[in-house]
Amino acid sequence: MRLAPALLLLALALPGRAASDAALVVHADQTGPVINRNLYGQFSEHLGRGIYEGIWVGPDSPIPNTRGIRNDVLAALRALHLPVLRWPGGCFADEYHWRNGIGPRANRPAMINTHWGGVVEDNAFGTHEFMDLVDLLGCDAYICGNVGSGSVQEMMEWVEYLTSDADSPLTRLRRANGRAEPWRVKYFGVGNESWGCGGAMTPEYYADNFRRYNTFIKNYDPHRPIERIACGAAGDDYHWTEVLMQRAADRMTGLSLHFYTLPSGDWGKPKGPATGFDEAAWFATLRGTLYMDELVTRHSVIMDRYDPARRVGLIVDEWGTWYDPEPGSRPGFLYQQNTLRDAVVAALNLHIFQQHADRVRMANIAQTVNVLQAMILTDGEKMLLTPTYHVFEMFKVHQGATAVPLTLTTPEYRLGDHAIPAVSASASRDAAGRLHLSLVNTNPHAPVEVGCRLAGPHAAQVSGRILTAATMDAHNTFAAPNAVHPAEFSAARLQGDQLGVILPPMSVVMLEL
After folding, report:
1. What pLDDT does residue 232 have?
2. Which pTM was predicted?
3. How many CA atoms lie within 13 A of 401 on its CB side?
C-alpha cells in the first residue's frame, strides 16, 4: 500500500529507525464470535492494600465514601464498564470462613492472613460489603468458595445465605443483618489453586472434590442458575485439564487457568523491578506474556476433545505481571508500580483472549487496586490511574461486540537471538455498526507503518486514541498522576477501502471507523 504524503512525512518525523511495514486485512464482511464482556473482568483479593484502603475505608473515614467504599475508586471502576469482579481470593479464599464476615462489624472475629504478610484483619469487609460493592459497580459477582480448609456444609450454607428467598434460619439471619432480598451470584468458584495453596491436591483428588462440593451448590432460582467454575491448571499443566475435563466437564460451566508474566519466566529467579529496567527486561516480559496464546490454544484443544460444543468456558481468572515489590513496601503486600510496559502487556493479552473468544469466556486481571498489575493505586486519600487502567478504558468498546477476523503480516521485533511480532491487532463491530481496531507496536525504538485493507463495507471516517510515552518505564506517580495517559491519535488516514496507520514505538492505539 502506498501512503499519502502526510503519512510519509509523519513517518520521517518520528524518532527512531525508519518505519517497517505491516500488512493487515480487516475482514469486515465476515463475523466471528461475540467477545464476552467478562474478558475485561477484575480480581480483588484480601491482599495487602487491595481491599483495605484500596476499596474499603469504612463509613467513618474522612475519605469520601459510600457505606465505607471509597467514591473515587468507585467512579474510576464504573468508567471501565466493569463486567465481573472475583472475590475473596486467591489463596485467601481457602482460609476464608464467611460467617466471620457478617453481622455487626464490632462483633466480627479477627483473622490472620497467613498468605499475605501475616497481618491481622478484622473482617470489616465481608459478604454484605462485597455484594454492596458489585451492586454499586453494576457488575456481576464471582465468589470463590473455600474447598481447602472449608466444609461442604459451609459452602452450601453460604450459597443459601446469599441466594435463597425461602424462610429458613439462614435467610432470616441475612435479613437480620440488613439484606431482605437474595443477591444474584452469577459465578461461583469451587476452590482456588487446589494444586497449590488451596490444598496441594492431585487433579484426580480435586476432580472428586469438585463433584462433591458442586453437588451442594443449589440453584435457589431455577431461572438463573449459578455458573460453577472449577479450579483449572497452573500454566502448562495440561494433565490437570485432561483429568478435570474427563471426570467433571458435565458438571461445570467454566474451567480456570492461572498464568502470570514474569520477566525471567522462572519462579525460582528474581522477578526484577517494576521500574528502572532495561530493554532486555522489556523484551523478556513481552515475549513471556505472548506465551498465553500457546497456553490457551493447547488447553482449548484438550477441552475440545471432551466438550466439542464448547459449552464449558475457559476462565483465565488470574493473569498479569508479577515483579519485585516496590522498595520500602511490605513484601507480602505485592505492591508494584505500573508502567507503559504493563499497558502493552495488557493489550497483548486482551488481544489473545479476543482471538480465542469462542472458548475464553472470562478473564480477571490480578489485581484491581494496589496489588500486582493494578488498575488503580492509592496512598491514603490520593488515587491515580495506571497505564493498565487506560488500556482497559480504551478497549472497553470491544466488550460485548462481535469479533471481526483479521489477516496480519507483521515485521519482527528482535533482540539478540529471539524475536516477537512487532504488531498485534484485534477488531470488533459494536451494535451500532462501528468498527473498532486496536493495534500494538511492541518495538520500543522503531515506528511501524501498517497498510490496512478493509474488506466489506467502506468506512466514512476514522478517529483514534493512543497510549505511549518517551521511555519504557514511564509511569504515573502521585506527584505526576497524568504522566502516561491517552491522547488523540491523528496518524491514520482513510481513503476508500485503504487505511494507513503509523504506529509510534511502544504504543497502543484504538481506532474507530
Report:
1. 98
2. 0.95
3. 22
Q: At residue 4, does pLDDT exceed 50?
A: no
Cell 486481571 locates to 365
DSSP letter for each residue of 114-165: TTTTT-EE---S-HHHHHHHHHHHT-EEEEEE--SS--HHHHHHHHHHHH--
At 342, is the secondary structure helix, strand, or coil?
helix
Sign, CA dihedral 291-294-297-298, equals negative
Spatial distance between the Cα atoms of 464 and 100, rounded to a whole number of angstroms: 49
Beta strand segments in 442-512, E? 448-455, 463-467, 487-488, 492-495, 498-503, 507-512
- Distances in Å between the Cα of 78 and the Cα atoms of 84, 343, 375 are 11, 19, 12
Nearest to 95 by CA among 142, 128, 24, 46: 46
Distance of CA 193 to the CA centre of its chain: 17
Q: Whole-number mean pLDDT of the chain? A: 95
User: Hey, which residues are catalytic here?
Assistant: 193, 318
Task: Say yes or no to pLDDT of 343 above 90.
Answer: yes
Q: By C-alpha distance, which of 29, 72, 32 is closest to 53?
A: 72
Beta bridge partners of 488: 465
Q: If we measure between CA atoms, which residue out of 54, 53, 57 comes closest to residue 68?
A: 57
Distances (CA, A) of 62 to 69, 70, 133, 333, 381: 12, 10, 19, 24, 8
Report whether pLDDT(20) > 90.
no
DSSP secondary structure, 293-315, as one string:
HHHHHHHHHHHHHH-TT--SEEE
User: Residue 400 CA to chain centroid, in angstroms?
Assistant: 15
Report the distance separating Cα 118 and Cα 474, nearest Å: 32
**53, 55, 56, 109, 233 from 61: Cα distances, Å:** 10, 12, 9, 21, 41
Rounded to 5 degrees, φ, ψ at 471 are -130, 155
